[in-house]
Amino acid sequence: AEGEKHSIKGTYKPLLQDNEKYGKKVRVKVQLDSTKFWSPSKLPYDYLPELRGSELDCVVQVSKIWVGVDQWGVTLELRHALVHESILTTCPF
Q: How large is the C-alpha radius of gyration of the chain?
């Protein structure tokens, strides 16, 4: 049991991390089938835009507040995202 505890701890990555270059960094999971992505001209994307390096204006909704034995958490659901794509990701060459 002691070895299992160490292997789980070794692979666990917290959602909130300290980053020397950017300060705080948050890992996020998004359900793509329930999120609407919008272009800066306020038109919906017909495809999933390139999100890496892009700026997002987000509308989120609290979907759950949960309590465990010695921990608690909040689940946020991304409902809408206005995507300002990075020039580096939209360059065609």
A: 18
Say how many C-beta atoms besides its own lie within 10 A of residue 81's C-beta.
19
pLDDT tens string 18-63: 878 878 877 777 888 889 999 999 999 988 888 878 888 999 898 8
* 83, 90 contact by CB (below 8 A): no
Residues 6+ apart with CB under 8 A from 90: 50
Q: Are 45 and 37 within 8 A, CB to CB?
A: yes
pTM of the model: 0.61
How far is 62 from 77, CA to CA, in rounded Å?
A: 6
